[in-house]
Each structure stands twice: as C-alpha cells, then as structure tokens.
C-alpha cells in the first residue's frame, strides 16, 4: 500500500501542482461558508459485513486516483485574487479512512460530528470515510461519509464509492450502470394548466419554527433517517416518483404551517437536476443545476382530497417537464454574474453574502433532492452488498430544511435534515411523520385518464 505523504508546498525543487479554477457552484458554496452551519454532505451506507481495514484503505486510495478530481485541496491565495483554485494532488494529505472504536453509541457520535464539522478544504481529499460498528462482534457496519459540498456533491461521491467497492471486491473493468434518464423531459405529458405559483413578488412560505427552537442560539444540524415503501407507478400514470415527492413535500410543509399559524404564502421547492452519465467517465465535482418548483396557496389550501391531489400531481408533472427542458447556468444567471472574475474573491464573497441576506425572504422554502435508484451495486465482496443508502444535503437558514431521497430495491430511503435554529429533534420527528403520511396519500391517487404510458 502506498505510504501517506503529507502535503509539501514550500519545497522549491518540486514541480508546481496542477490547478483548476473553482467552477460556479464551487465558488458560490465557498462564499456562503459561515460558522455553525457546515456545508457538508452526510452519507450512510449499510453493509451486512465488515470490510478489512488495509484493503478498504487501499481501494479508496485507488478510487481517488481513478477519479483524480476528488483528490483536491483549496490552493492558498490572497483575498484580492480573482479566482479560488483547486490544487490537484497525487496522494492524500491525511488518511481519509477511519475505524473508530466500536460501541452502542458509536454511530450517534459519528453522525453528530458529520453534521457539525465539514472536512477542511485545505487538506486533500475534503472527505472523511468511517467504518462504524455497534460492537466488536457485530456482523454488519455502517460506512459513514462526510463530504465537503464545496468540492463534491452526493452523486459524484457515490461514483467514487462505487469504484472503491469494485476495487475492494477485485472486480475487473466496471460494468456501466443504467443510463441516467432523470433529467430528460418525459414524453407525452398531458396538456393542461401548469402550477399557479401566486404573485411573482410574494415572499416564500417558511417552515414555521418549533416553539422549543431558538433562532440564532442553536447551531448545527439535526437529521432523521427512515425507510418508506415505494409504490410502483400504476399503468397510465402521467407523473413520476419525483413528482410524487414534490407534492408530498408541499403538503407536509402546508400541514405543518397550518398547525403553527404561519402566514399563507407560496411554497417554493428547490430541485436539483443532474444530467451527468453514471459510468466511470462521470465528471466529478458539483454537477447539478437547480430549478424551483412553485406551489400557490390556492393549490394546497385546506386538506386536499384525492381529486385535488390528482390535479396537483398533473400540474406538477407538466411543470417539472418544462423546467428540465430549460437550459441555463447551474444556479441561475444571477449566481453566474456574482461569480464572474471581475472583482477580487473577497469582495465578491461579501457582496454575495449581503445579497443573500437581502433576498432571504424570497429564497425557496426547502430543498428536495431525489437521487433516485442507486445505479451501482456497491458490492464490497466479503463485506457484502449495501442494502441501504442515505444521503442528507446541508441546510442553513433561512431555508433551514432539506429532504433527500434514494432508492434501493422496493424501499425509499429518506433523510430529513434541519437547522437546529429552526427545529428541535421532536419537531423533526413530527415533520417526518407528516411527510410519510403525505407521500402515502399521494401514492394512493389513481392515474388520471389519458395519462402517458
């Protein structure tokens, strides 16, 4: 196994490492870093067995070399430079794979750290992978991964992890996973009205804070991981599972806010769209673009019955198909303008944060990231094949809430993550219960007549 080599930046005899400028999404994430709200993707992969430490470390290092864009650190520079830059390294600065002591509370402790501390950008790779066991004799384990979102997103790291599993299990050339169709507009969408988002300048609905939460005093994130059944789409359905999730999320927020007497405003849900292939040629980094699905107060008013939910599904399906077909910068034209290398990065960061505070009331109500079915077997040989994968996206105020879903087999793995300035743990559990009930109600709606096969 290759020995760990620390970063050496001051040795004049060494050739300069390759550098690449931060793409738009990376810079925007870097500019929004602030204490108490780490920008880190948290991921948990459940295995029936336990990997051997030396083999797993060697396989992960080899996977990082295969996907060299993951083996980066932020290059040092002055505040007045025009670009942030990634420094491509040829080895990790620190050992990224850890095996903490086993114990009944080991997973809870590791999860708390993952939600409170992002890996530093100054060391390559900005990733932590820990093998968590409930006891020294436990049969299975959890791979708990923490990824700095400025460097990689969830789908990119899953690609790196898939290569790790292939290398650990001794697989030869990896088989290409099924193509990714999630970002393509579905054919045959029924004609009809799209969503009624309400007045365009109206403020967004905010998830009402729990009485026990104290904005500004609590820091960090909380998370709840769960599994729900996935009901197959009935023949003739004119919507996707992603459309169901969007409507269920809208109904969850609407119900919560009604119970807490929050102002009735448009619910805006940010939705990532990922067009990247899922094979070994997948570009590593942050490769999604964000769109916003809007729901007006008249569409979710009251407790909607099956007919209202069916109409809302039909409108949502049409709207998401239109949004997926639109080509634009990943975070919109405003973000592209703010990250243009005209001013020094320090001034651009201050301008971006100030503008973010000013437009806070109009930012989306929540983020729903549906990664879909995991396209890789994640087979770790003698440690077994992953039977559950949870991913949670970072959240910060004023949004304060994210929902991330993945699918394996006939199960939907749900991660509800919240800012502790908004909700406490009991409120998070209640909100998750509302989502489960809303999704069941949405999934039970029969297909509308004339829907696309």
Number of helices: 10
Average pLDDT: 85
Alpha-carbon Rg, integer: 22 Å
Can you identify the CATH superfamily of the largest domain?
Answer: Nonribosomal peptide synthetase, condensation domain
Q: How much beta, percentage-wise?
A: 15-25%
CATH architecture of the largest domain: 2-Layer Sandwich
Number of strands: 14
- Record the strand order, biggest sheet: 8-14-13-11-9-10
For the sheet with most strands, the description reads:
6 strands, mixed
| CATH level 1 class label of the largest domain | Alpha Beta
CATH topology of the largest domain: Chloramphenicol Acetyltransferase
Number of domains: 2
Cα distance spanning the termini? 52 Å
Which regions have little confidence, pLDDT < 50, spanning 5+ residues? 1-13, 181-191, 449-453
Order of helices and strands: EHEHEEEHEEHEHEEHHHHEEEEH
Helix content: 25-40%
Protein structure class: alpha+beta
Give the topology, please.
Layout (H helix, E strand, L loop, with lengths): L18 E3 L2 H8 L8 E8 L5 H14 L5 E3 L10 E4 L8 E2 L7 H11 L10 E6 L8 E8 L5 H15 L52 E9 L11 H19 L7 E8 L13 E8 L1 H4 L5 H20 L7 H6 L6 H14 L7 E8 L14 E5 L8 E8 L2 E9 L5 H19 L10
Please give a structural write-up.
With 453 residues, this protein is α+β, with helices and mostly antiparallel strands. It has two domains: 19-168, Chloramphenicol acetyltransferase-like domain (Chloramphenicol Acetyltransferase), CATH 3.30.559.10; 221-370 and 395-443, Nonribosomal peptide synthetase, condensation domain (Chloramphenicol Acetyltransferase), CATH 3.30.559. Helix content is 29%, strand content 20%. It is built from ten helices and 14 strands. The protein has a six-stranded mixed sheet with strand order 8-14-13-11-9-10, with helices on both faces. α5 crosses α7 (306-325) and α5 (241-259) crosses α10 (425-443). The longest helix has 20 residues, at 306-325. It is globular and about 55 Å long.
